[in-house]
């Protein structure tokens, strides 16, 4: 073949070879990206499973502790009453402690059952229009009379706030939030406030002066089983489902919950719920 034709043929072959090389390199690059993405996804999934397994382990440890401690206390108190002749005031004191431990057990079981029912879609809310201002004040007085008498809990409750809620579910939200602040508030005063944000929404907040919650933890604390620290060394009581339950119940009421930094220190839990007119 004439020289020019050979040069043209060589150029075409070089071009095809170059295209083939780039195709192979491109396919290799795509394969590598897919491989890296797959590796990242698997690693993330494994890390998530390990984190969940650790949370479940902590949950089982905490539930075991939460069940064992009050049961042991009630048993000891009953044995004391059975085996000794005690003055009436001492007997009343032991009855009071036994009742408190029984209430603690009941609250734990109720929370566990509520979480199970909500997750299974078996919790039909029985909503009714209630005067939240009066309801909140009565609930706090009946549940936390000792803490309120000691000035441990202070309130700022706006009058005439009406909401359409399941009162038992709302009680669980309030009690879990107040218990949480009492537990982690480092003996600080707990402030419970109720305000009307607008004609559509009402805001309930529970604030303490404890150590607060780091920004990195603010979303995690509403996860199921999540508790800060390790269950083997943690001193505070709890199971890691209280705030998870609160978020489930607030969401069921078309509301929102968030946690903010309190001033000058501590944590402030804020619940926004739809309100209704007179």
Q: Any descriptors?
A:
5-stranded mixed sheet, alpha+beta, single chain, two-stranded antiparallel ribbon, 6 helices, 15% strand, 278 residues
Report on this model:
The protein has 278 residues and is α+β, with helices and mostly antiparallel strands. The chain has six helices and seven strands; from the N terminus they run ααβααββαββαββ. 20% of the residues are buried.
Strand order of the largest sheet: 2-4-5-7-6
Q: Provide the residue-averaged pLDDT.
A: 82
Strand percent estimate: 5-15%
Q: What structural class should be given to the helix and strand makeup?
A: alpha+beta
Oligomer: single chain
The tally of helices reads 6
Rg for CA atoms = 30 Å
Helix content: 55-70%
Order of helices and strands: HHEHHEEHEEHEE
Total strands = 7
Largest sheet geometry = 5 strands, mixed
Uncertain residue ranges = 230-234
Task: Give the CA-CA distance, first to last residue.
Answer: 100 Å
What spatial form do the alpha-carbon principal axes imply? Answer: elongated
Q: Which helices and strands, and how do they pair?
A:
Blueprint: H1 3-83, H2 88-119, E1 128-131, H3 132-143, H4 145-149, E2 153-157, E3 162-165, H5 167-184, E4 190-196, E5 201-207, H6 242-252, E6 256-261, E7 267-274
Parallel strand pairs: 2-4
Antiparallel strand pairs: 1-3, 4-5, 5-7, 6-7
């Amino acid at each position: 073949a004439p020289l020019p034709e050979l040069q043209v043929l060589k150029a075409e072959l070089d071009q095809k070879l170059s295209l083939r090389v780039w195709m192979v390199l491109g396919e290799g690059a795509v394969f590598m990206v897919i491989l890296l993405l797959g590796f990242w996804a698997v690693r993330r999934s494994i890390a998530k499973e390990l984190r969940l397994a650790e949370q479940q382990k902590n949950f089982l440890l905490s539930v075991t502790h939460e069940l064992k401690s009050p049961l042991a206390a009630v048993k000891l108190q009953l044995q004391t009453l059975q085996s000794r002749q005690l003055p009436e005031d001492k007997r009343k004191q032991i009855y009071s402690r036994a009742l408190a431990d029984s209430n603690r057990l009941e609250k734990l079981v109720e929370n566990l059952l509520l979480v199970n029912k909500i997750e299974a879609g078996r919790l039909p809310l029985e909503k009714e229009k209630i005067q939240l201002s009066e309801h909140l004040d009565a609930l706090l007085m009946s549940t936390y009379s000792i803490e309120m008498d000691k000035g441990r809990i202070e309130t700022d409750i706006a009058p005439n706030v009406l909401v359409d809620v399941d009162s038992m579910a709302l009680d669980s939200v309030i009690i879990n939030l107040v218990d949480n602040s009492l537990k982690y508030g480092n003996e600080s005063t707990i402030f419970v406030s109720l305000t009307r944000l607008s004609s559509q929404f009402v805001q309930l907040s529970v604030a303490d002066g404890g150590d607060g919650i780091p920004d990195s933890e603010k979303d995690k604390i509403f996860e199921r089983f999540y508790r800060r620290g390790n269950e083997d060394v943690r001193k505070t009581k709890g199971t890691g489902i209280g705030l998870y339950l609160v978020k489930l119940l607030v969401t069921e009421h078309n509301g929102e919950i968030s946690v903010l930094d309190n001033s000058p220190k501590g944590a402030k839990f804020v619940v926004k719920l739809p309100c209704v007119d007179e």
